[in-house]
Amino acid sequence: MKPWYTALGLACPRHLEPVRSLTVDQALRHASQGVGILWQGSFPAARRLLDGMRRRLDRQPADPEVSFFRYRQQRRTRTRVLGMVVVPLDATGRVALPGAPDVRDAVAAAAGGPVTDRLLALRELLGMASAHEWRRRGVWVRALNRYIHPHWGVFVPTRQEYVDLVAAAPLPGADLALDIGTGTGVLAAVLARRGVRRIVATDVSARAVACARENLAGLPAEIREADLFPPERAGLVVCNPPWLPAQPASPLDGAVYDPGGRVLAGFLDGLGTHLAPGGEGWLVLSDLAERYGLRTRADLLERFDRAGLRVAGRLDTVPRHRNNRGETVSLWRLSR
């Protein structure tokens, strides 16, 4: 049996059953019992099977407003079940199934190098291929009138209401801005477009730093690998932290889930010492944590007060995505 490979920390199924043909019902029964499906039929048939399993699991989608933690448990179960369909890579890194596309570049981009002669979950493989296509084609950003190219493992700015807020907020100063947790660099690019003369962007992820350097090439931005703040003080400090103070289920959830609210707390506690006189900190945050009962508005305002910050203003917007049920995204203008 080939060794297991995962970039997401997925566990290898304890038992793998070689299969050439299977119904959706049979596949779900195998997967729910912890039996991995080592696919040996055609690649298109494997995709059809996985799509059928996903559709069946999504017939009664979990409602996060009923119970956030129950919702998360259901999503983890869904991820585990769909991860039970396994495909082999040959000694050249190709998927060793008839009709398979060449995904070697996509896997190498996600893994940081070639992956050969391994087994991996079909769902993870398809995610790698999709991420590689995002990187190749890019995501059109209205506020920039250009494409941003996300790397695998870096948050894709498909929801752009937070970008639009940074593009619209009244700019305090234009000499130096800090972008904390830059990700793809999209907010730093918006600040550069608005005329900020120098930007220092940081991220704790080496993948994000490489991604931002690619997207910000030619702009007045310096990208550094750092946990939150660089040593500079600036007239504007921007941060769009993970919105939900909960445990991520995989490395790809890190831009959305912030265990214990560490990033938010670190930003607020350090903001005052990194603001130049008269400067502002822009905190871009959804109210999803409040809607799911993970944090109250009073908790957030108390955090501001404890950090010695006052609210100079706030801009709100309503997301345009179809699943929005009253969510509001806000840009909090904070000062000392």
From TrEMBL:
What the entry lists under InterPro entries is as follows: DNA_methylase_N6_adenine_CS (IPR002052), N5-glutamine_MTase (IPR050320), SAM-dependent_MTases_sf (IPR029063), Small_mtfrase_dom (IPR007848)
* Example GO BP: methylation
The keyword ATP-binding is assigned to this record: no
MF terms in GO: nucleic acid binding; protein-glutamine N-methyltransferase activity
Keyword set, alphabetical order: Methyltransferase, Transferase
Where does the Methyltransferase small domain lie? 176-246
- Name of one Pfam family that matches: MTS
Query: Could you identify this protein by its name?
Result: Methylase of polypeptide subunit release factors
Source organism per UniProt: Actinophytocola algeriensis
